[in-house]
Write a structure and sequence with these properties.
Length: 167
């Protein structure tokens, strides 16, 4: 009977709270798609962002966002592209990084990558990371003419990142 109780307690801790429409909660959302889980529509909002235009007009041709779902207690990175003609020779990787606080300082916890590629999808996003007492950063790196690097091998200082977001 004790084993059944422990398994039930673990499932309950990682499931969405009662009354929620999302399929996961906090650490149970790690590695999960924010769209299909319902987290994007369940309290999903942009908490850090940077938008820019290649032609210096007051329009946002592309951008980077760090998104958070209060209904799922999880974060993900999203890349937006609205000018496919200009970006057709440039590919991008998207990265979501989470660090945890320890008595010894910040410790790298998890990273998710998404190859945005040359696609004209207007919204591309990473899987989520759900973790309390953490800091999160959304980052991107551009590559040209099909030269796709291994994103895990690209040093942190070569990524363009938004400011840390603390939970």
């Amino acid at each position: 009977m004790l084993t059944f109780f422990t398994a039930t307690a673990l499932f309950t801790a990682n499931s969405a709270p009662a009354g929620a429409t999302a399929l996961c909660w906090n650490t149970g959302c790690t590695g999960v798609n924010p769209q299909s889980s319902g987290c994007s529509s369940n309290g999903g909002s942009t908490v850090r962002w940077r938008y820019w235009s290649h032609n210096n007009l007051p329009t946002d041709d592309y951008g980077l966002e760090l998104r958070r779902s209060s209904g799922c207690d999880a974060q993900w990175a999203r890349f937006i592209r609205d000018d496919c003609e200009w970006l057709k020779n440039n590919g991008y990787y998207l990265k979501l990084r989470a660090d945890l606080w320890t008595p010894y300082g910040w410790y790298h916890h998890a990273t998710y990558y998404k190859d945005v590629g040359y696609s004209c999808d207007t919204r591309v996003y990473t899987s989520m990371i759900g973790q309390s007492s953490a800091r999160y950063a959304a980052c991107y790196i551009r590559y040209e003419n099909g030269q796709r690097p291994n994103p895990a091998g690209v040093p942190d200082e070569q990524w363009e990142c938004l400011d840390w977001y603390y939970t």
